[in-house]
From TrEMBL:
Localization (cell): Secreted
Keywords carried by this UniProt record: Glycosidase, Hydrolase, Secreted, Signal
Annotated Pfam families: GH5_mannosidase
Organism, as annotated: Natrinema ejinorense
Region ranges (Disordered): 1-20
Lineage: Archaea, Methanobacteriati, Methanobacteriota, Stenosarchaea group, Halobacteria
PANTHER family (alphabetical): MANNAN ENDO-1,4-BETA-MANNOSIDASE 1 (PTHR31451:SF39), PTHR31451
GO MF annotation, one: mannan endo-1,4-beta-mannosidase activity
Protein name: mannan endo-1,4-beta-mannosidase
Amino acid sequence: MTSNDRATDTDGIDRQNGPTRRRFVKAIGAGAVIAPFAASTAAAATEPTTDPDDLAYVETDGAEFVVDGDPVYFNGANNFWITHEYEGTKERIDDVFDLYENLGIDLVRFWAHGEAKDGPLALQPEPGAYNEDALENLDYLIEAARERGIRLIATLVDNWDHEGGMLQYAEWAGAESRYEFYTMDETRGMYRDHVETILTRENSISGIEWREDPTIALWELANEPRLEQDDVPADMDSLEPPEHREILGDWFADMSSYIKELDGNHLVSTGSEGHYYGTWEDDYPNDDWGGQDYIEHHSIDTIDACSFHLYPDHWDFPLEEGADYIRNRVVDAHEEIGKPAYLGEFNVDDTQHGLETKNETLAAWYDVADEHDCNAVLPWQVVLEDTEDHDGFQLYASESGHLIEDYAAVVDGKSGDESDPDVIAVGEYEARDADDDGLYEDVTGDGETTHEDVTALFENRGSDGVQNNPEKFDFDGNGRFGSSDILELLGRI
């Protein structure tokens, strides 16, 4: 083959022997193109982005949460107060998320509901009528989380009536029980309307619909959904098992499918306490009273992850049994159901046990969660130091923050890329450091540095591998990646 037979693209690059310096400069437009390109890559290298388009969604792969295909574990927290008038201001939100960032918390569960409650941040004062101030407060919460690299779980209704919850929907429909909330067309329709309002909400700050924002990791259908056997209208006999389990399961299946129709991006879970479905003779919470069935309900196809909570003080069993409670739920989620498991709420009442016992117990629970690879843990609830401890279940950094920080190190070590750490994906190539100088001059990964590496770097200069690792391709040593680095690599050949 003669030199005239070589394949040369219209941009002036010789595909066989690679670009000459003159041809390369001509191809990219000399200084007029080099300067702005270098400036843009410098900005990308030094300025963290908060653009939702630059985030990947949390997904599942079997029994793991994954981001960009890599396994990820979460060190989380709940904050009930953050959407209230008590703490629901922009300054307060910033203070809370600054605390979380400092503690290494990277997943926060919050309420995306509030039916007919009092106060300036009542989210839905009347059916279908929404308080824009409350919605903008949540918009700001989402932005505050994203800026700090924190993901969110948004809960869409409450079993309990602190925020109105299921019983408020029933009251709006002229009913009185959770049975009617789960079964009436009118209440189911109002819940669907709320789901659509939240998922299609356009963030007033970012302009991104919530259903298109990867900051949100997961939608929870409800907080601690139950259907107890006697939670029926006054003129109706109590439910006979397993009828209440089937009603609850039907609601989970219907509403999770509806969310999937509206939003193909996000995960969905039940938000349940994770009780097994037993018999009347079994000890609570593993009897048949509340209608929950951890295995059956989380096996629904449109449920992506298994939710469970842990409150021995409320459920009247010894603190020491909490470790087995966690172990059993995680193992069953991973091995029997084949999905991730997350401990969505847990804590010990220090007004009953004291702070020392509380911290010792929580440390043991964190240990068993780590041992069995629980995919996320979120204690109830991590608050600022000036937040009133109204029930013994608040966690303050000054008292228990070391537990959260320690677990942050645990999940950091378990999360991330399982691929070869010595390889950077550059387009279709796997770039390597050929001489251990910290620079990835072997762009094609073939063990040599040739004109082909220069061509590959030029063609893939905008790839994630290059843009996210500018220091690995900073051949001219000016602290950033730009066109001059491609020229420098060419000059070394």
